Please model this.
Amino acid sequence: MTQHPILEIKGLHKRFADHHVLRGIDFSVAPGERVAIIGGSGSGKSTFLRCMNFMETPSEGEVWLDGTRIGTERNGRVTYPEKQLCSVRERLGMVFQQFNLFPHMTVIQNVMEGLVTVKGMPKAEARRIAEAELAKVGLSEKHDAWPGRLSGGQQQRVAIARALSMQPEVLLFDEPTSSLDPELVGEVLRVINTLAGEGRTMLLVTHELGFAYHFATKVIFLADGVFHEVGTPDEVLKNPQKPRTQDFLRRFGEFAF
Amino acid sequence: MNYTPDFSVVWANWPVLLRGLVVTIEIWLPSIAMGLAGGFLIAQARLSRRRWLSGGSLVYVELFRDTPVLIQLIWFYYAFPILVGVQLSPFAAALLGLTLNTSAYASEIFRGGIKSIHRGQMEGALAIGMSRAQAMRRVILPQVVKRMLPAFTNRTIEVAKMSSLASVISVHELMYQGRLLSSTYYRPFEILTAVAFIYLVLIYPGTFLAGRLEKHLARSS
Ligand SMILES: Nc1ncnc2c1ncn2[C@@H]1O[C@H](COP(=O)(O)OP(=O)(O)O)[C@@H](O)[C@H]1O
Ligand SMILES: [Mg+2]
Model:
């Protein structure tokens, strides 16, 4: 790909005290790419994703967004001004495993909140956009419901609409279906699939290997704090070259592509 | 018991009691309002990762929670001026003491409330580009206030009652006027009963409304 990357990571390390979770990651994402990140539990998949939008502060390394380095380096120390992080997070939407909807706001208020509070948009305009995003995730009839009254699948779709409302350039999904009852997984994956059809740039941490195979343009197997194996879905999921990857896939058992 | 109560002394002196009630309210509401605002800031300090901030605010909170309020008020009237070289009026000393006392208790309520809100709420707010301050104002605080409403109500009631202690440093509030009247007219039974009744009338509507509000909020989610 000749297009310049929307997101680029150089020499990323993350330590929690003396727990060295990410150990030197170099990576770039081109616009329109869909990256699936797989790996064992506790291998650092969430940490990696959270370093992209600075929910975690990288211990070392650089994050570049659309050609701009995030953070300011002075005397060898990098600081991250809050203003800059806010704008980075506006541009990188995130969807969490636990939805993290605001329980004291109705569905439509959840989706409008970023537009009104962060973008300073008039309420009427924010409402129009929020309605469109809710229609996209198939929840038009739930505008005035409280999040607590919705099923897990519906809550996650509201969370996706909330992320979409900010018109992010990249979407980060951290195991969006892992806390859902099996019968609710499909409705969320269908929404994510629709977004893929729109050519959006997305990073998805998932254990749904079958979905990852169809969804992704690139698959990453994360182990020992590094990108152990990277390639197309066929390369990584069907013909993994490294024993470690083969092991992981075998332990995951059969999955239908 | 062959004492014949005569409440006419209360009617005759109602303007004095009313003046006292006004002063009581003038101590009560501002010290609650300022104490809550201060308590929010102290809670931030308590939750700070900086040791000198969290440690310092802990000492502050314990000083006010583990000493009698009566001593605190007297201290701000008689001892504090020696420390700073400025004499406070009884009213100012009482207001200062009750405000700081309230801020110490309120900070613990805020702190407990903020900690009880799942970390995911802050992250959900930050992830759409909110600053920490915006997240606090739009997402965390509304949930804290709702969850902690009973505790805030109790504190408000406590402060109304504590304000009566200001009478010992001669703040001319309700309790002070009551004691003055009862020793002037030798009618402590009628006057102190009336004073207690006025406190009841002052405090009960607050308790009642808070109860209603709590039920209403519980329904809305
Ligand atoms: N905030 C944190 N503080 C300390 N350790 C953490 C923190 N977040 C994650 N970890 C540790 O980092 C490792 C990777 O975690 P995580 O990125 O959540 O893994 P995954 O998402 O792949 O399951 C785990 O061992 C986890 O315990
Ligand atoms: Mg994880």
